[in-house]
Specification:
Layout lengths: L5 H9 L12 H15 L23 H15 L1 E3 L19 E5 L7 E7 L6 E3 L12 E3 L4 E4 L13 E3 L4 E5 L12 E3 L4 E5 L11 E3 L4 E3 L13 E3 L21 E3 L6 E3 L12 E3 L4 E4 L12 E3 L4 E6 L1 H4 L6 E3 L4 E5 L1 H5 L5 E3 L14 H8 L31 E9 L7 E7 L3 E7 L4 H15 L1
Parallel strand pairs: 3-5, 4-6, 5-7, 6-8, 7-9, 8-10, 9-11, 10-12, 11-13, 13-14, 14-16, 15-17, 16-18, 17-19, 18-20, 19-21, 20-22, 23-25
Antiparallel strand pairs: 1-4, 2-3, 23-24
């Protein structure tokens, strides 16, 4: 296995740039950082030449070529950081990169006698800066976690050189631009978390052709529907909530037999629930709330393993049958704020075992329901799902490089991904957004890349 304008430029380089030591990062700050990143890219457009590290002169002696490459990478990254309120990168100096905060070394996969940088984890550092292309020199990195910081700009093309990368978590930052397609070129990537950023435009169909186990895209600015090939993805967890997608849930979803959790709330979805949903026998979390879905709930009766079922905040109609309320693993069924006109007695009896929320519907003799006139306007005009067509997403509004204002957000979304591998900490990101959903994404990842970090942490603890 392979181991891993001139005047404007002068003005920018001579201008003093400082940020306050707080979590605040204005759009002007973000734009300035992103502009500096583009200037740093130069003629290689975010990539680096194959022999780049040889051309870089350093003032220390490092005989291990892999660690020399890593030293060049971290030195460039340190220069791209403009605010580090917790001094996380204060140790990033000197030749021994393995002692840097947030940097983990381990024996190289192809040569156990050689030490190399296998992981980077500076989550929750509140660090402001950008990602320089020199990070492509970290070709042995398996885990790259930088969530809950203030990194801006785009993901450099050089990330395509991280051929051993298994997990990338860049969530809760200020990244912008179209979907970072460079991530789709990383051959061993299994876990992709890019939520809570300002990525925009369409979701590329190629995403669902990649062998990913977990996909987190929520709370960005993606549009133009969910690609029809969603069902080609082998992922066990897919979260695309709080985007502006529009369109329908693709019928190909029924092919996702290994799917455990899917969260599509508040994504502008319309049309009916496809019958193919009934084929999702292993799904434990199914959340499509706060959309514009219509028609009957019948496909839900096939979700044999579902524990958390939420279809609230739509325009669904009809009767909630017993075979949904009596699903064997069901713990929470929320179908409030729809136009259902009845529910089976089993839905009421099982309230001791299952939390059910049926408010704001059209169900007779149940509390907190819609008015008769409001109900009649919808219930008396049932949707024929055999003839209905999907809505289309709106034309996107052009945005500036730094993204939009975050002031419209109001409540909380929390999604936690827990590893079953010993020695790994769970990843948890909480940020304010326009809707609330809580789900636990439990994964069992036992690949060599993850074991490297787990073994490293265990060894460190033992010593």
């Amino acid at each position: 296995m392979q181991a891993l304008g001139c005047c404007l430029l002068l003005l920018l380089l001579c201008t003093t740039f400082t940020l306050p030591t707080s979590t605040a990062l204005s759009n002007a700050d973000a734009h300035s950082i992103a502009r500096r990143q583009l200037l740093h890219f130069g003629e290689h457009d975010g990539d680096i030449p194959d022999d780049y590290e040889i051309t870089v002169n350093i003032t220390v002696t490092i005989t291990n070529t892999r660690l020399r490459r890593a030293y060049v990478a971290f030195k460039a990254w340190k220069s791209a950081i403009y605010s580090d309120p917790y001094n996380i990168t204060s140790s990033w100096h000197g030749p021994d990169v393995c002692t840097y905060n947030g940097v983990f070394c381990a024996p190289a996969l192809d040569d156990p006698l050689v030490s190399t940088v296998a992981g980077v984890d500076i989550n929750s550092g509140d660090i402001a800066g950008y990602l320089p292309p020199e990070l492509g020199l970290l070709s042995d990195v398996a885990v790259f976690h930088i969530n809950s910081n203030r990194f801006c700009g785009i993901i450099p093309k050089s990330f395509g050189r991280l051929t051993l990368l298994h997990e990338i978590d860049i969530s809760n930052n200020r990244f912008v631009g179209k979907f970072p397609r460079v991530l789709l070129t990383i051959p061993n990537l299994k876990y992709m978390d890019i939520r809570f950023n300002d990525f925009e435009g369409p979701i590329p169909p190629e995403l669902f052709e990649k062998d990913l186990d977990a996909i987190f895209l929520n709370d960005n600015r993606f549009r133009f529907n969910i690609p029809e090939n969603l069902g080609d993805s082998p992922a066990s967890v897919v979260v695309i909530a709080n985007n502006q997608l529009g369109g329908c849930i693709p019928r190909s979803i029924g092919k996702m037999t290994g799917l455990n959790e899917i969260v599509l709330l508040n994504s502008g979805l319309s049309g009916c629930l496809p019958q193919e949903i009934s084929l999702l026998k292993n799904v434990t979390v199914f959340h499509v709330g706060s959309n514009s879905l219509s028609g009957l709930p019948t496909p839900l009766s096939g979700l044999a393993a579902v524990e958390q079922l939420d279809v609230s905040g739509n325009a669904l109609t009809g009767f909630i049958p017993a075979n949904i309320c009596t699903l064997p693993a069901l713990k929470n069924f929320t179908f409030s704020t729809n136009y259902f006109n009845g529910e089976a007695i089993e839905c009421l009896i099982r309230r001791k075992d299952v939390e059910v929320n049926d408010g704001d519907n059209c169900i007779p003799n149940r509390p907190k329901q819609k008015g008769k006139d409001v109900c009649a306007a919808v219930v008396n005009k049932p949707v024929d799902c055999g003839k209905s067509k999907c809505g289309s997403s709106a034309t996107p509004t052009p945005r500036c490089l730094t993204g939009g204002d975050d002031s419209s957000t109001t409540t909380t979304i929390t999604i936690t991904a827990e590893e079953s591998v010993s020695g790994r900490e769970s990843i948890s990101t909480t940020k304010t957004t326009s809707h609330q959903v809580t789900t636990i994404a439990a994964r069992s990842v036992t690949t060599t890349a993850t074991i490297i970090i787990a073994s490293l942490l265990a060894t460190t603890t033992a010593t």
